């Protein structure tokens, strides 16, 4: 009973929906124009960990030796940067092969299919395709059988039997598809070992917090780098029963409030272990909210406030403008707000610099050390231009015109929202990056983000005297970067994303992938 009362007190929320994240911002530095390098998670995370535009490495994740060797490092929860190359055990893209010393979490992405949710990334589309094949094969089997029995068709029984067997297999696959996806994609690893397959989602919050606390206790006497990637604020919005119904904003709000509580638990652990004053804490997101994650009248992918667009929408602010909070008591000025353009790519060189290392000299690093800006010893960001790619297509670019205090945004390509007049690509998972469902703008769309952050008012030569000067200057910067860009093989094209049974991680003899290695 006492434990339950303490739990209820711990879960009490004040009038703020996110009191712990708010506390981080109040005690640290908040970046109000913090930009991800892509509007979807995998390329954004690759850029965050390498300090490079994802297009430079084909959205790849080859980050070996990028993490300073003298840090104890760990990645917790969602990785989503690949796992295997040639076999189910080579783990070529595993965090431990790319600079981290410990990993605990999901190597793949969190999906609605992991909870057999009403929103599906794979299952519904695959079931539809299998169903079409089933109908075709079953119809063929019936026609062949009827023709054989009525002697209208002269053929042996062998093709009739095989077509019937194929129909039975397709029927079975259709019925078992959801279970197969859960076992194939939704599992938990510790380092190179599979601990749960499939994951028991209600346990993940407590397991993550326990793992974080254990890591901090083990390493509090030496330098460490801990990357915690929450599974929250992402479909299927797995929320423990203690937070369900707590928020005025539905299930998404419940999920946000639980994540905020988890942030508070981690901060409390830092306090308890005496680490607060010598630990730099950074809070961010890899992309904006997913507007298409909608079912009926319920919005499950979040919302992006005044910013237009969302996840997967190329260069619109709603997909790439993300939270940016740095807290380091006694070092960074509390309550400082920085409105300069900054990027998730800046975190890598900043951490390397703080660790006493040197960024790699054999490749272009697009990020900059943020410490002078965070400390207030520099007034302006080192980013004069930031380019916004959608896969390999350049959709937009921004120019920080420092002498006039203006931030301009030029859109060369934008997705066509569906249906007409909508604010997202409803009916699709994400908006397309190229093809017939995007619009190429000649001349490009121009916005003044310093006055119009919601990108509501398109500027034209008739309304903006600097139109041609701004568009021309941005175009020069784009051409200069693209001349120096060396294309790399795509890591996330269709062949690389096609399921290959021989690469499937399995904690038992395939396809019997089932284990619960974690203690209850």
TrEMBL record:
- Superkingdom to which the source organism belongs: Eukaryota
Question: Could you tell me which residue ranges the Sulfatase N-terminal domain spans?
Answer: 18-356
Q: Name one Pfam family in it.
A: Sulfatase_C
Q: Which residues cross the membrane?
A: 161-182
- Mind telling me which Gene3D superfamilies this protein's record contains? 3.30.1120.10, Alkaline Phosphatase, subunit A, Helix hairpin bin
One example GO MF annotation: metal ion binding
What keywords were assigned to this record?
Calcium, Hydrolase, Membrane, Metal-binding, Transmembrane, Transmembrane helix
Keyword Membrane among record annotations: yes
What SUPFAM superfamilies does the database record attribute to this sequence? Alkaline phosphatase-like
Q: Name one GO cellular component term.
A: endoplasmic reticulum
Q: Which cofactors?
A: Ca(2+)
**PROSITE patterns in UniProt:** SULFATASE_1
Q: Which InterPro entries match?
A: Alkaline_phosphatase_core_sf, Sulfatase, Sulfatase_CS, Sulfatase_N
- UniProt similarity note: Belongs to the sulfatase family.
Q: What is this protein called?
A: Arylsulfatase L
């Amino acid at each position: 009973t006492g434990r339950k009362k303490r739990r209820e007190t711990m879960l009490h929320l004040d009038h703020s929906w996110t009191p712990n994240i708010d506390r981080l911002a109040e005690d640290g530095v908040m970046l109000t124009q913090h930009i991800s390098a892509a509007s979807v998670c995998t390329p954004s995370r690759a850029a965050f960990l390498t300090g490079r535009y994802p297009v430079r490495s084909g959205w790849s994740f080859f980050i070996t030796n990028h993490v300073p060797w003298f840090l104890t490092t760990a990645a917790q929860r969602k990785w989503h940067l690949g796992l295997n190359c040639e076999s189910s055990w080579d783990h070529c893209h595993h965090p431990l092969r790319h600079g981290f010393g410990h990993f605990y979490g999901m190597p793949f992405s969190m999906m609605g299919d992991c909870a057999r949710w009403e929103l599906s990334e794979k299952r519904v589309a695959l079931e539809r395709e299998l169903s079409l094949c089933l109908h075709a094969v079953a119809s063929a089997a019936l026609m062949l059988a009827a023709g054989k029995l009525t002697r209208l068709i002269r053929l042996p029984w062998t093709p009739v039997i095989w077509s019937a067997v194929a129909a039975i297999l397709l029927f079975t696959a259709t019925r078992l598809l959801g279970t197969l996806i859960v076992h194939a994609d939704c599992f938990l690893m510790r380092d190179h070992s599979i601990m749960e397959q499939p994951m028991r989602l209600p346990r993940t919050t407590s397991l993550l917090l326990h793992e974080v606390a254990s890591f901090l206790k083990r390493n509090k006497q030496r330098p460490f780098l801990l990357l915690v990637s929450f599974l929250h604020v992402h479909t299927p919005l797995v929320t423990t029963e203690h937070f369900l119904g707590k928020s005025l904003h539905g299930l998404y709000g419940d999920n946000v409030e639980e994540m905020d509580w988890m942030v508070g638990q981690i901060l409390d652990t830092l306090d308890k272990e005496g680490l607060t004053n010598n630990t730099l804490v950074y809070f961010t997101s890899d992309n904006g909210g997913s507007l298409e994650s909608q079912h009926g009248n319920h919005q499950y992918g979040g919302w992006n406030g005044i910013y237009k667009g969302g996840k997967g929408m190329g260069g619109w602010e709603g997909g790439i403008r993300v939270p940016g909070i740095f807290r380091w008591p006694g070092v960074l000025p509390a309550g400082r707000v920085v409105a300069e353009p900054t990027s998730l790519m800046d975190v890598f060189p900043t951490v390397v610099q703080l660790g006493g290392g040197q960024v790699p000299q054999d490749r272009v690093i697009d990020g900059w050390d943020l410490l002078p800006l965070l400390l207030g010893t520099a007034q302006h960001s080192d980013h004069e231009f930031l380019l916004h790619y959608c896969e390999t297509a350049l959709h937009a670019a921004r120019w920080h015109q420092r002498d006039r205090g203006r931030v301009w945004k030029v859109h060369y390509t934008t997705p066509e929202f569906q249906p007409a007049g909508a604010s997202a690509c409803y009916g699709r998972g994400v908006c397309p990056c190229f093809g017939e469902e995007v619009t190429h703008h000649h001349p490009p769309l121009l916005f003044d983000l310093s006055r119009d952050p919601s990108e509501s008012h398109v500027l034209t030569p008739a309304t903006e005297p600097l139109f041609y000067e701004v568009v021309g200057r941005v175009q020069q910067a784009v051409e200069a970067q693209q001349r120096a860009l060396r294309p790399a093989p795509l890591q996330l094209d269709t062949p690389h994303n096609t399921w290959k049974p021989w690469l499937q991680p399995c904690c038992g003899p395939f396809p019997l992938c089932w284990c619960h290695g974690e203690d209850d």
